[in-house]
Amino acid sequence: MSQAVRVITLTMDGREISARGDQTVLQVARENNMYIPTLCHLTGLARVGSCRLCLVEVKGINKLLPACVTRVEEGWEVSLNSERLSKYRKSILELLFSERNHVCAVCVSNGHCELQTLAQTLGMTHVHFAYRYPRLAVDGSHDRFVVDHNRCILCTRCVRVCDEIEGAHTWDLLGRGVNAQVITDLNQPWGESDTCTGCGKCINVCPTGALVEKGKSVREMTKQRQFLPYLTLMRERRW
Amino acid sequence: MAKRKAMSKQTLVINPVTRIEGHGKVTIQLDEQGKVADARFHVTQIRGFEKLCEGRPFYEMPSLMARICGICPVSHLVASAKACDAILATRIPTTAVKLRTVLNLAQLVQSHALSFFHLSSPDFLLGMDSDPARRNIFGLAEAHPKMARDGVRLRQIGQQIIEKLAGKRIHPAWVVAGGVNEPLAVETRDQILAVLPEALQIATGALDWFKTVLDQFREEIRTFANFPTYFLGLVSPTGELEHYNGFFRVVDSRGNIVADKLDVLNYADIIGEACEPDSYLKSPYYKPRGYPEGIYRVGPLARLNIADRCGTPRADQEWAEFRELDRGAVLSSFYYHYARLIEIIYGIERMEQLLQAPDILSKHVRAFAGTNNPEGIGVTEAPRGTLIHHYKVDDNGLIVWANMIIATGHNNLALNRGVLQVAKHFINGTKIEEGMLNRVEAVVRAFDPCLSCSTHALGQMALQVQLLAPDGEVLDELRR
């Protein structure tokens, strides 16, 4: 922590809190055991603020702000869980569910899925948007892993972990908007990728059943994410 | 109406058929004299599982295919897992085979209990002609509380065994390609063994009672799909009743074995599939005899007709008595109910034998392998008959083609002929009486068809029968 960082005070859901000026709203909330839902965010990876689930309200600011990329300011009055936020968050989840083919009942990640857990936690009971039912392929060309685009929510955790931690940058995004898709190398089958080291980090950071180990049956895919902050820390020290 | 009746042919429609699993309807064509000219059983829903699984990794198939049915998910789970084992091209651990067999039998017990007690016993105990509003499990609970309680309890025992073994009563994910994903705990085994005697007591009690009332149903026995057909199913290598492994055996109506020790992998050599324009259910037939002469039946009645014995003490006694009902094979489909009760007894006894095997607690319950074979076929005996899952995969293990022959499908030809037989016998003239129609439904119920293989109808479902003129005008209508 640099010496120039100020200590500031703010309120979160009416609670008075002091924090360092270089911290994000999300970090401060978590330090104080206050819940903000997140999906694209993963401690140890660069923050992109793309999923918008962590939006919070700040008194006096009309826009909703993403907690994972917003620094706290002196005197802010932040609402983490207002009715308006709850409505928006549910809508975001509903849009994610309607965009591709998320069928929990027959998913290998059923019971261990962040998207499913969020839907349960935030009380999403119905999808009010028309499902798109896109016809998307499963790439099973890799020896050990499978990517099922039907279950991908484009959080880009795989892209970031592969680039920032493994240093391979096998994963990237192709296309824009609703046509966007994660790809390996230059959009070739995963099994033919020259850069993939087969480390499996992308599998473990993926929040859903999109990236999974081959041969896992329904409900069997559990992910290990505890390695990530440790890896980041060790590399920071060595480099 | 009288004028129209004299000049036109008429059609009776029973839609939906009640107290069966799934959605079907019956149409009965009457001629100018009001006599039954033809009758057909139609399956009115389409599922499309063979198509929607294309592109999925094969090892997801057991749980995906289990979703075909909420009554017999275990059958699909097991048949699908066997097809996947074949794709892995590996021999799965013997303990896994035993555990899967126990699971399959637990389901046989609960499904048969549902068919006999919940769906069909109201006809036996309250009467075929009794008030349809009360002719269901609730009416049964009022008039014969012990029978209703026994039925609910027996089904509960079957379901609880499934839950204890597989973690969930409906759509468990325990059975996987290569075996099962958790070994059996000693406490679980002991808990299951502890409830089996009560189940056996209920089943034997029900069978003893059923045998005493058979005489009251002579007319039904004589007319409920009672005609010569072939019978097909699995038997063990030694000719015993078998629901998990084994070979195909086909017997004719005289009880003679016409084909034996047929490898299940060659099912396509003996079973042909015909399509009828008015039903989503395919009509399989015994290929060597052609269509439709190759009409055959599967399920409890067929299994008891093809086996040399059951292989468990009490079931063997009952089987011997059962086979005395007819000189050759037992032909009346009314006896499906009888056969179902014997199979419940067999299922309970066999589960006990398997759970007492010394290696049942082995921790080695799963084999691992990749895509070693581009094709896999899995065959089991589901409660309603022989179930076949057949998949083809690409080099990456993704499904490119799937075919399934569902147990109820095998009986399609016999079901249709049975509906016609009962309609001809019981329906006369144009005056519809509810009891007549219930008999038409009851012959369908005797087969215990699982049409959707996913939903089940129980109790107060709307039964609508319309008498239609050729121009579509409703001449007479009966509604429950």
CATH 4th-level superfamily of the largest domain in chain B? Cytochrome-c3 Hydrogenase, chain B
- Give the strand order of the largest sheet of chain B, numbering strands 1, 2, ... along the chain: 3-2-1-15-16
The CATH topology of the largest domain in chain B is what?
Answer: Cytochrome-c3 Hydrogenase, chain B
Largest sheet, strands/sense/barrel of chain B: 5 strands, antiparallel
Distance between the termini of chain A: 18 Å
> Compute the gyration radius of chain B: what is it?
22 Å
* Main CATH class of the largest domain in chain A: Alpha Beta
Number of domains of chain B: 2
What does this structure look like?
The complex is a heterodimer of chains A (239) and B (480). Chain A is built from 6 helices and 10 strands; from the N terminus they run ββαβββααββαββαβα. Chain A is an alpha+beta fold and 239 residues long. Chain A has 2 domains: 7-81, Roll (Ubiquitin-like (UB roll)); 104-238, Alpha-Beta Plaits (2-Layer Sandwich). Chain A has a 5-stranded mixed beta sheet, with helices on one face. In chain A, strand 6 (138-139) and strand 7 form a beta hairpin. Chain A is globular. Helix content of chain B is 42%, strand content 18%. Mean pLDDT of chain B is 87; it is low at 1-7 and 453-466. Chain B has 2 domains: 2-46 and 418-479, no CATH class; 49-361 and 404-410, Orthogonal Bundle (Cytochrome-c3 Hydrogenase, chain B). Chain B contains 16 helices and 16 strands. Chain B has a 5-stranded antiparallel beta sheet, with helices on one face. Chain B has a 4-stranded mixed beta sheet with strand order 8-7-6-11. The interface between A and B is medium-sized, with 18 and 19 residues.
